[in-house]
Write a structure and sequence with these properties.
Elements (H helix, E strand, L loop, with lengths): L4 H23 L4 H18 L9 H37 L7 H20 L2 H12 L4 H8 L3 H22 L1 H14 L1
């Protein structure tokens, strides 16, 4: 008698649940809450794809690949969510047209640019260069990845960390600028 797909998945799942959770926790640096979320998404995706599992590899290898994809999805969502404030801020400062501004607004924009440049100068050189290429040279993630001979996810992560570091520096060095920008963003949304 042949086992139903449901029963064979449950048997396979029971044998790998704990090792899979350990695998995910290790990849996420010990973040238990996120690991549980990724674990649930991984199990759900593997359940949905169970009929397509061709047994060319071990079940654990297959489900770990799914887990890595779900971890990448999680980080991609984090990068996107945390870029909502910093990236537009950098883009607006870099691309602001002075022709449409009053003399007072031009002065404020110049002061803001000076402040941002001062904060950028406090960043490590590699982070500063990534932000420069992305927001002042308008290079795409793909172009930056090719330039540094790394993959796109690596560039996305590095830009995310650079923006977070810049945000932290802005909060310390020029809190009034960053708070004013955050307030304006909330009012416009």
């Amino acid at each position: 008698m042949k086992k139903s797909p449901h029963k064979s998945f449950v048997i396979a799942y029971k044998s790998i649940a704990l090792p899979l959770m350990k695998f995910i926790i290790k990849r996420l640096g010990g973040n238990q809450e996120v690991a549980e979320e990724v674990f649930a998404k991984t199990v759900s995706a593997s359940w949905q794809g169970w009929s397509r599992f061709e047994h060319k590899s071990k079940f654990f290898t297959w489900i770990c690949r799914i887990a890595l994809n779900k971890i990448a999805d999680y980080y991609r969502e984090e990068v996107h969510g945390n870029s909502v404030i910093v990236a537009p801020f950098l883009e607006e400062i870099a691309q602001a047209e002075c022709n449409d501004l009053t003399p007072e607004e031009k002065l404020i924009l110049d002061e803001m640019r000076i402040s941002v440049r001062a904060c950028l100068a406090l960043l490590p050189k590699d982070k500063r260069k990534l932000l420069y290429l992305r927001y002042w040279k308008d290079m795409t993630i793909v172009q930056i990845a090719k330039r540094f001979n790394v993959n796109e996810r690596s560039v996305e992560g590095k830009i995310y960390r650079a923006k977070q570091k810049l945000k932290d520096i802005l909060d310390v060095e020029y809190p009034e600028i960053y708070k004013a920008y955050e307030k304006a963003n909330k009012e416009n949304s």
